[in-house]
TrEMBL record:
It is an enzyme of class 1 (oxidoreductase). Its EC number is 1.3.99.-. InterPro entries: Acyl-CoA_DH_CS, Acyl-CoA_Oxase/DH_mid-dom, Acyl-CoA_Oxase/DH_mid-dom_sf, AcylCo_DH-like_C, AcylCo_DH/oxidase_C, AcylCoA_DH/ox_N, AcylCoA_DH/ox_N_sf, AcylCoA_DH/oxidase_NM_dom_sf. Residues 114-189 form the Acyl-CoA oxidase/dehydrogenase middle domain. The keyword Flavoprotein applies. This is Putative acyl-CoA dehydrogenase. Its cofactor is FAD. The keyword Flavoprotein applies.
């Protein structure tokens, strides 16, 4: 693989994003209510053109947006990403009427979007969805069932909802619908999570949807979901990289000035080696994320595998880096309100959402065996599905 580096314009852009997040977006985030949609923050993202830039750019710029914002304001990063996740199905599969109705409000930050895929018994297994779309005499459907752990619920203005339209068909029987938040039969409640942000459970009790609400083709919703996740999985990794970089920077500052055992902590070999490991994992994660995003933008065939690798490694690396930062800071980092205490809570969720780490490993392994040339290997070896050479 060739050496990868960002061009000068993108480097300058990322620095400007970090400054905007610190100076403008962070104060708005701090005034928001925990566990609620922060509409003034969304409006600021729209006012500064970040939402429009997200939809007009490729995967690499999406990753740079998320990483840069995450370094200075994770709330702004999350607000931006959730607008993208809920809206990208409309952008890629929606009709002209659907786009005209919702995209202007999303890009200026006045319409809140949500991606409603997860269910109590179908989190990472998107093909096992149980939300039913039952045929209605009017020619449409009625939705029955529930969704859970849906970001921006129950306050979103519209939801991209994935429901089963054909029983017994697995992934081939799922349809994507665009459902306005005020549709009859749709209710929701907020959920209290470890790191509070707007997230909730939805109940559909005969909620009507019709042909005008379908995103893409009937029974083609699984592909809509997977194309969305292929784009956003590397950017989840970028979010993790931003958190890791923040934790690393804080650790460098702390260990350089904090004195113990007759000198700075940085002079202790155990500390220095831990910091070196934190930096190496952060940089490795960053490069995996950028490579996956570049592959997506180039239309490469191996996008699902690269996206899974980036999401897996970056989120696991960020967990290690933030945990190490807390360890090297000591008790002060455990105090409520400390920046690392907040990061310690926030860094845990990305290893689960948009496909848990275990799911990413399965995706990677399946892709590797699928991509492997048939017949003997380069030196005549064969391998069974468990990976043992024979």
């Amino acid at each position: 693989m060739t050496v990868f580096s960002l061009d000068p314009d993108r480097i300058v852009w990322c620095a400007a994003l970090r400054a905007l997040a610190a100076d403008t977006l962070r104060p708005l985030a701090e005034r928001g209510a925990p566990g609620r949609v922060n509409r003034p923050l969304l409006a600021a993202l729209g006012e500064h053109g970040l939402l429009r830039r997200m939809f007009a750019s490729g995967a690499l710029d999406l990753c740079l947006l998320r990483e840069s914002l995450a370094e200075r304001c994770t709330e702004a990063e999350t607000a931006l990403a959730l607008q993208g996740l809920g809206t990208f199905p409309v952008l890629q599969a929606g009709t002209s009427e659907q786009r005209e109705r919702w995209l202007p409000g999303v890009t200026d930050g006045t319409a809140v979007a949500a991606f409603a895929l997860s269910e109590p018994d179908a989190g990472s297994d998107a093909a096992a969805l149980a939300l039913r779309a039952e045929p209605d005499p009017s020619g449409g459907w009625r939705l029955y069932g529930g969704k859970r752990w849906i970001s921006n619920a129950p306050e979103a203005d519209f939801y991209t909802v994935f429901a089963r339209t054909t029983e017994g068909a697995g992934a081939r029987g799922v349809t994507a619908f665009l459902v306005p938040g005020d549709r009859p039969g749709l209710t929701g409640v907020p959920l209290d999570m470890l790191a509070p942000h707007a997230i909730g459970a939805l109940t559909f009790d005969g909620t009507p949807v019709g042909g005008a609400d379908v995103l893409g083709a009937v029974d083609g919703g699984f592909a809509v979901a997977m194309r969305t996740l292929d784009l956003f999985r590397p950017s989840v990794g970028a979010f993790a990289v931003g958190m890791a970089q923040t934790a690393l920077d804080a650790t460098l500052e702390h260990t350089a000035r904090r004195r113990a055992f007759g000198g700075p902590l940085a002079e202790l070999q155990a500390v220095a080696h831990r910091v070196a490991e934190m930096a190496t994992r952060t940089e490795a994660a960053r490069l995996l994320v950028y490579a996956a995003a570049a592959a997506y933008d180039a239309g490469a065939a191996e996008v699902p595998r690269r996206s899974a690798m980036a999401k897996l490694y970056a989120t696991e690396a960020a967990q290690y880096v933030v945990d190490s930062a807390v360890q090297l800071h000591g008790a002060c980092a455990l105090q409520r309100g400390h920046p690392l205490e907040r990061l310690y809570r926030e860094v845990r969720a990305p290893r689960i959402y948009e496909g848990a780490s275990e799911v990413q490993r399965s995706i990677i392994a399946r892709a590797l065996y699928r991509e492997r040339p048939s017949g003997a290997g380069a030196r005549g070896e064969t391998a069974d599905p468990q990976g043992r050479a024979g």
